[in-house]
Amino acid sequence: MAGSSYYDIDDILAAQERVPCVLRVDLDGLGSAGSGGSSKVHRNARWALPLWMADQLNEEDCVDMGVSPVFSKRANRMYAASPESIQLRAVSQHYYQFGLLLGDLVPEIPGVLRNMYMQRVQRIARVAQQGHSLETLDFAQSLDKTEAAMLRVCQQAQGAITDWHQGKAYALRRAPAIQ
User: Fold this and answer.
1) C-alpha distance across the termini of the chain, in Å
2) pLDDT by residue (tens digit) across 86-109?
3) Cα distance between residue 32 and residue 139, in whole Å
4) Distance between CA atoms of 9 and 106, rounded to whole angstroms?
5) Which top-rank group of organisms is this from (predicted)?
6) Are 14 and 103 within 8 A, CB to CB?
């Protein structure tokens, strides 16, 4: 999981997203998590584990990691068909960060992320310029954490431009040394 920041809460939450795994070995002590009281989990059992745990177990050859349903081929086709209409917050609040963490494992994910981002960033910029309306509110509620932060930055920039046009900001003054 290269590229994640140890202290960034959003990276921590993105690493909590679950990925499907198949156990390669029998594991003791995990059974209370789902096998009805037995403390042993048998080989070939299917589990959805947090990405941070699955990555560690994969490095130790204890599990085979699968692709998260968030980035399945079916989901990727749906994203490509209509990226602006996807409710990313419902799919994953940390969609882009989770995708970046999975990018090393699945070569198609960076392209999916790039296409989704390029399509949606244009609408985010338009929403920031349009101001507040019911349509913009609905779209803003569909954004994941990364896009929501970008919308806030775009709205602040739009406000700064408006202030500049109205002469409320960035007034040039003569330096005291020149007076």
Assistant:
1) 58
2) 899 999 999 999 999 998 788 889
3) 41
4) 24
5) Eukaryota
6) no
Amino acid at 132: H
Q: Is the dihedral of CA 63, 56, 1, 79 positive or negative?
A: positive
150-159: long-range pairs with CB below 8 Å, 24+: 150/121, 150/124, 151/124, 151/127, 154/124, 154/125, 154/127, 154/128, 154/129, 155/128, 157/128, 158/128, 158/129
pTM over 0.85: no
Residues 171, 172, 178: CA angle, nearest 5 degrees: 150
Q: In the CATH hierarchy, which top-level class contains the domain 70-165?
A: mainly alpha
* Structure tokens that stand for 32 in this block: 């209370």
- For strand 27-28 and strand 40-41, is the pairing parallel, antiparallel, or unpaired? antiparallel
Q: Kindly report, residue by residue over 126-166, the tens digit of the pLDDT.
A: 888 887 777 778 888 889 999 999 999 998 888 888 888 88
Topology classification of domain 17-66: Ribosomal Protein L9; domain 1 (3.40.5)
**Identity (one letter) of the amino acid at 104?**
D
CATH 3.40.5 intervals, the chain = 17-66
Indicate the Cα dihedral angle 57, 62, 66, 67, nearest 10°.
Answer: 10
